[in-house]
Amino acid sequence: MGAKTLSAAALAALLASSPSLAQAPKPGALETYKDWTIGCDNRNRCEAVALMPEGADWPEVPLMIGVAREAGPDAATEVWISRESKGVADVSFLVDGRTVATARARDGEAKVRGPQASALAIAMARGTTMDVRAVNRSWGTPSLAGSGAALRYMDARQGRAGTMTALVATGPMGVMAVKPAPTPPVIRRAPVPGGTAPAPLWREELAKLVTFTGCAHEMRSDQTPELHRLSKTETLILVPCGSGAYNFTSVPVIATGIAGRRTFRFAPFDAAPGWLSDDKHPTLVNVGWTPEKSRLDSFAKGRGIGDCGGSEAYVWDGTRFRLVEATSMGECRGVWHWIPTWTAQVTD
């Protein structure tokens, strides 16, 4: 019995060496509490961002504000702001009419760190109104509705609830009671060979390819598939398959064999890309290929206030594309800030 039983270490090694057995990545979902949204990645880094209140008038120059924190006992709080502005300005953060923190902004970007950031985040969670001021004028009045609930979620997700390090869900336990950050997955990328570009598709191959992908009626006359070398015998083909005002979709295919007689299969992924994928084939949006990093990026843009976007980055490991980064943008009421929901470490 003992000879047939895998130890935990042996099982972990087996999973790491066999991608087909490894658990598929599950990017975190965003949570929304009134006028705040929050997301955490697989390493329990969390970021909460203020949204524009429902029905509020759109400001002439919108201000974004967020609270971010890494996981782990020693991780500090960070409060950031972003707005369209030029030059350097001293910024004050007022909660319920009281100045809680100050920072120096450069071109509209400022960050508050350390104890001052913790004090500001706590004040925001407890407060009713907020005003961010610079040069004796208001830069914005972010809503605090839901900020306390969002930061309470952050405390719970990072294992801080009941400890002295929590922002909202404080308790008597010390710093050593806080959970450490989970170890990120490690992905070994397969180098992509240089040399000459793959041979162009023959007319018969192109006809077969667009039928295979179902993109015959989605590809414009001025569009052609992109061919990129993956290995000595494999070619990545990005097939145009529809476009809109903001987004251009592509279907990733891997071709094998010699020019004129290549066979096609859909590119395999360990996590389905994008919000436009279906059960038939993967779909990438505004795709980009970086051969030096063996990296494939997909980036879906939202439309104005109502729609939200998402992005994924994958690395080719020699057998499939592995997810290394994922971000989401939820409840996009005046917010254009990407919140990480998955991260991995890439090695050569």
DSSP E strands, number: 22
Please give the count of helices.
Answer: 4
Mean residue pLDDT = 89
| Silhouette | elongated
Alpha-beta classification: mainly beta
Strand order of the largest sheet: 1-2-3-4-5-8
Strand fraction: 35-45%
Q: Share of helix among residues? A: 10-25%
Major β-sheet, in short?
6 strands, antiparallel
The first-to-last residue Cα distance is 38 Å
Order of helices and strands: HEEEEEEEEHEEHEHEEEEEEEEEEE
Give an overview in words:
By secondary structure, this protein is mostly beta strands. It is 13% helix and 35% strand. The strands form five sheets. A six-stranded antiparallel sheet has the order 1-2-3-4-5-8. Strands 12, 13, 14, 15 and 16 form a five-stranded antiparallel sheet that branches. α2 packs across α3 (147-157). The longest helix has 13 residues, at 114-126. The protein is elongated and about 70 Å long.
